[in-house]
Amino acid sequence: MPEIWVPYGSVEVAIDIRIENILESIEKTLQTLTNDEIKQKLSQINFSGKVGIFVADDYEPCLKLAAIIGKVLVEKNYNNPNVQFIVPRKGAASVRKRLEELPFRVSMVQVAEGEPIAEVYGDVTTKILLSQVGFDGLFGFSGGLVSMTRAIESQVIGNSFIVHPILEPSSGTSTEAAKMVWENATQLGDVLSISVVPSQGDVNDIAIGDLQSSQKVAEEKFLKASSKTIAEKARAAIISPGRNRVGETLSSSVKSIWNILGGLRDKSTIVLLAECGEGLGAEAFKLYGAGRLDSEDLSRLSKYIEGLEDLVFLQEISKAHELVVVSALPNYYIESKFGLKSAKKASDALNHLLSSQGSRTKALIVPQASETLLKV
């Protein structure tokens, strides 16, 4: 019996599964840039005057790059008044901690509703947007202007979802919602975009250029490294969002499910291993878990709530598939509130999978589902 290890919070857990029950174990090769290689790529940037760097994502690869950019600026003899790292309220603590050894300001910003998005930069000369590309159920891809818009909680997100309501996620594709967000690119003026292509919590590559071109290059590189074509659709999958923070809440963890749906038949069983040590996550999930959102009204809400689209996706997908969540969350929330199946151990979830789909069922195993897009 092979022993397959998958990420679960800060550790890994073993999946003890018979080889005849494995359709395929989809492992991603870890490919990263060294710090020197990253510095070499950054050498093409012409820093001048007052520099403002908006850090749109606070995942580890993006934080690592922010720290390296700071060190490059130190080496160029930039001093504190001339460099400002700009962060949204939610990412402020993570960015400050990562940059605490650098002699630069880290300023928190919040754009008021109706205020131009360009106001985040103030009077800086060199405007830089630092973000991390990834899969997004509503916009197809995160990164660039999508990450920036999500970070400052602009009503643009709500408008995109309400104007173009969809019930099923569209990871890795071009969506109408994304087109709406990118229509605001001209508001920012001359901004240099640095897009991080992640690989299992590290930097696989970076794309540097204007907002549109850097995002396109980053998406192409990420899609090439993350797409996996399988021979046949499966009736079962055992997945983990991956390492680091992608599995820290229920709302962040379920996003990984959207990426693997293309490899599953209808009425499949999906086992999600995500510790969810930080709880339910997005505001919509918290309100729903507290009974303050009616499931019948979700798709008809006139005001956007953070995470609303993922909650709608979760409801729709749970009608077509059985979802089993292995987490530290109480059964009360997983089963009574969200209507999913709860398990405390991977072995219990596997036993349930085999009993519901049959003892001869072959399952896909995806240890890095947040960075894996399945196709047939």
Describe the structure.
The chain has helices at 35-42, 60-75, 92-98, 144-151, 155-163, 176-182, 211-226, 250-253, 255-260, 283-289, 308-320, 331-337, 346-357; strands spanning 3-8, 11-16, 22-25, 51-55, 83-88, 105-109, 126-132, 134-136, 140-142, 191-199, 202-209, 227-229, 234-239, 264-273, 322-326, 341-343, 363-366, 373-375. 32% of the residues lie in helices and 26% in strands. With 376 residues, it is of the alpha/beta class. Helix 1 (35-42) packs across helix 2 (60-75) and helix 5 packs antiparallel against helix 6 (176-182). It folds into 2 domains: 3-26 and 230-375, Alpha-Beta Complex (2-enoyl-CoA Hydratase, Chain A, domain 1), CATH 3.90.226.30; 35-224, 3-Layer(aba) Sandwich (Rossmann fold), CATH 3.40.50.11440.
List keywords for this structure.
globular, 2-enoyl-CoA Hydratase, Chain A, domain 1, 6-stranded mixed sheet, 13 helices, 2 domains, alpha/beta, 26% strand, 376 residues
What is the topological layout?
Blueprint: E1 3-8, E2 11-16, E3 22-25, H1 35-42, E4 51-55, H2 60-75, E5 83-88, H3 92-98, E6 105-109, E7 126-132, E8 134-136, E9 140-142, H4 144-151, H5 155-163, H6 176-182, E10 191-199, E11 202-209, H7 211-226, E12 227-229, E13 234-239, H8 250-253, H9 255-260, E14 264-273, H10 283-289, H11 308-320, E15 322-326, H12 331-337, E16 341-343, H13 346-357, E17 363-366, E18 373-375
Parallel strand pairs: 3-17, 4-5, 4-7, 5-6, 7-10, 12-18, 13-14, 13-17, 14-15, 15-16
Antiparallel strand pairs: 1-2, 8-9, 10-11
Helix pairs in contact: 1-2, 5-6
